Amino acid sequence: MAPCPENVPDPFNFDGRIGAWRCEAIAYAQVVEGLRRCYGAAFQDEVPRPQQVAWPKVSLPALRPEQTQALDAWEQAGRRGQVIMPTGTGKTEVALAAMARTGVATLVVAPVRDLMYQWHRRILRSLGCDAGIVGDNLFDIKAVTVTTYDSAYIHMGRMGAGFGLLIFDEEHHLPSRCRREAAILSTATMRLGLTATPERADGLHKELDNLVGPVVYRMPFKQARGSTLADFEVVRIPVALNDREQATYDQCSRVIRHFMLERRKDQPGYTWQDLCAESGRDPQARHAQKAYYLKRSVEDRAAEKLRVLEDIFRLHYGQPTLVFAGSNAMAIDVSRRFLLPTILSHTRKRERLAVLEGFAEGRLPVLVANRVLDEGVDVPEAKVAVVIGGLGSTRQAKQRLGRVLRKSGNVRAVLYEVVCEDTKEVHRSRKRRKSDAYERTRHRRV
Prior knowledge:
Elements: E1 13-15, E2 20-22, H1 28-39, H2 65-76, E3 80-84, H3 91-102, E4 106-110, H4 113-127, E5 132-135, E6 138-140, E7 144-148, H5 149-159, E8 165-169, H6 181-184, E9 190-195, H7 208-211, E10 215-218, H8 221-224, E11 232-239, H9 243-266, H10 272-278, H11 283-300, H12 303-315, E12 321-324, H13 328-338, E13 342-343, H14 349-361, E14 366-369, E15 384-387, H15 394-402, E16 413-420, H16 424-432, E17 442-445
Parallel strand pairs: 3-9, 3-10, 4-7, 4-8, 5-7, 8-9, 11-16, 11-17, 12-14, 12-15, 13-14, 15-16
Antiparallel strand pairs: 1-2, 5-6
C-alpha cells in the first residue's frame, strides 16, 4: 500500500516517471516505522528478511575492557554506529564479536583486495565460516560475504536486501561520491563502522553519521599508549641534499614560483588547483606541474637518505624493521640498494603473502613499502619503523606509527623520521606530528 500524499513519511519522494512514492534503501527502518504509524498493520512489507547464521564455531579471544566497552556501546545504540580506536587496538576483534552476537547475514566492506582476503581468512579462522567474495573478478554471494568498496557500490543494488549487518572497515573511505552507494543501497538496519582516523580533508566524514550511524565509542590514542599499545619514541634525522640535487631542487622552485607570480598578476586568486586544471591545455602550466613533481622526487629520493638507512640497519641489526617510503620509486631504490623485499600496490597477492610470512618468521629482517601497509593490513610484529617519505596527513602518520605499536612485553618502539632539511618535507613532517598520537611523545633529533 502506498502512503497517502498528505501523510507521507519523510524519506519518501514522489517519482513522476512511475507515478509512485520512492525512497532510498538506507531508510528502510525509518520507512517501516513511519508506515506503521500511518497505517498500523495494513501494509505489506515485501523486503526479504536477512538470513540467520549459525556459526560452525566461535573461536574468539577474550575481549579486552575497551573492546567490550566498544561492543556494548554499539549494541546500546541500536547496533548502529562508529567505533573509533587507534591502529593496533583490535577493532577487527570487536567486529567479529559483533558478528558472533548478532548471528545474521553480514557483508564486510574493505578498502582494497588485500584487506578483503584478510577479512575472509579472519572470519574462517574465528567463526568457521567460508565467506563469499564479491570482487577481484569473483561474484560469490553467501550469507556472510566480504567485498571491497568499489565492488560494493557497483553490486549493492542487487545484493543490498540480503544482509542484516554491514561492517565498513576503514570507514573514512565510504563518504566519497560513488562509494557512499554501498551504504545507501542497502536495507541493513545494523551497521558498524571501524577506523582509527575518521576525519577527511574534504569534510565528508560528517556524512558518516547518516551512512553508518553516530560515533558510539572513541578511544583516545593516549589511553592506549603504554597499555594496549607499546610506548615509543620518535627520532627525527635531518639530511641534506647533495650539490646536484640542490641545484635541481632550486631550479624547479624557480620555475614554479615564476609561473605562479605571472599568473597571479592577472588572476590574484590563482591556486595550485587552477594550475592542475590548466595543465592539460596550457604548455606553461604543464611545465610548472612537471617541475613540481621533479622537486618532490628530489626530496623523496635524496641519496643521503640511503646512507642514513644503512646506519639505522646496522644499529638495529637482527630486529624486524619496517621502512615506509614516499613513492614506489624510492621503495624500489631501497630494495635494490639493500636487496630487500618490497610490497607495493601492484605486488601480486601470492608474493605479498610470501613476503609477510618471511618477515613474520624472521627470514626477511626488513620490509619496505610505500602506502599499501598504511591501512588495515596485518603486519607481523616489528618495533622499529623508518619513515623516509610521505604525505603531511595525520591519518597516514597514525597508521604508520600503529604498525610498530602492538604491545609485546615492555619493549619500547622507535619511529625514525628521515627528513630533508630546507625543503617542503620539513613542513609535511610538522603537519604529521600535529596528530594526537604524538602528544607527550619523546622526540630526539640526531
